[in-house]
Write a structure and sequence with these properties.
The chain has 93 residues and is mainly α. The protein is built from four helices and no strands.
């Protein structure tokens, strides 16, 4: 299955920015950008598979939607990603 190119390109751009901001020590911004990339990839997948996607920023909901389409989602891997983004994006100040 081919994901919509525009969605992948935007996701890739967010990942490049996330990597750059990690090097700059802007971890909160890197986590935000990683979240955005994940949303774009998951929404692109849903668009290709089902023709639509839920309008949410909740990665867990997006993964549940993918699972509801009969696609096996590696739950533990997905959970670790979501928890990493949630915990790392909390501002310690």
């Amino acid at each position: 299955m081919n994901l919509p190119g525009e969605w992948v390109e935007k996701g890739d751009a967010f990942l490049v920015d996330a990597e750059n901001h990690i090097r700059d020590g802007l971890y909160w911004l890197s986590c935000f950008e990683a979240q955005q990339a994940a949303e774009l990839y998951l929404n692109g997948f849903l668009l290709a598979k089902a023709g639509t996607y839920p309008f949410t920023h909740d990665l867990a909901e997006l993964l549940r939607t993918i699972k509801s389409l009969g696609v096996d989602v590696p739950v533990e891997y997905a959970r670790r990603i979501i928890e990493f983004i949630r915990s790392a994006s909390k501002d310690p100040v």
